Amino acid sequence: MRKRHVVGAVVAALAVPLALAFPAQAHGYITTPPSRAALCDEHVQGVPWDCGDIQWEPQSVEGPKGFPSLGPSDGTICAGGNARFAELDDPHNGAWPTTRVTAGQQLTFTWRFTARHATTDFRYYMTKPGYDASQPITRANLDLTPFLIAPYGGVQVPTTLSHTATLPSGRTGHQVIVAVWTISDTGNAFYSCSDVQF
User: Fold this and answer.
1) Is 31 helix (H, G, I), strand (E, B) or coil?
2) Could you tell me the pTM of the whole model?
3) Lesser CB count within 10 Å: N end or C end of the chain?
C-alpha cells in the first residue's frame, strides 16, 4: 500500500513540470485587419523580416490580464509581455504593413480561435493623436479608454468571431490598435496589435 502511495506521489510530481513544459499551443488572434501576429504567420509572411517564434504560433500572444492598470509592461504590450514574441514589440521604424482607414469608419475585427476559452470581454484601444510609429507601444502613447468594449459574459467563444467598431476621430498617419481578449477563468488575456494608416 505504501509503495503505491510513493509511486502516485512521484507521478504527480513529474506531471507538474511536464504540464509547464508543454503549455497549450492554441488560443487566438486577429486575422483582419491583419494583426502583427497574423502578418508574421508562416503561411502569410506579410513582413520582410524574421519574426522569430511567433511565425509558428501567432495565436499564442498570451499575458497577464487586467490591462491597462495591470498586464504587460510598457514596450512589451504587443507581445503580451512574452519575451519569446518580442519581435511584435519592435516598431521596425514604423515599417509594419498598415490597413488604410478613415476617421469615423466602421471597421470589422475578426478573431480566429484555436482554443475556445470562456471569455470576459474584448477591448480595443488606439494610439493617441501624434503617435510616432517608430516607437514601441506604451500606456503613455495609448488612449486608455477603449473605443470598443464587447462583453462576453463568461461564454465560450466560437472558432471565429467578429466585432465592428467606429474608429475614433482626430487621428492621422500610422496608428496602432491594441485589442485585448480577456479570459474569464484564467489569470490571462491575449494581446493583438494591428497597424492602420489614416
Assistant:
1) strand
2) 0.86
3) N
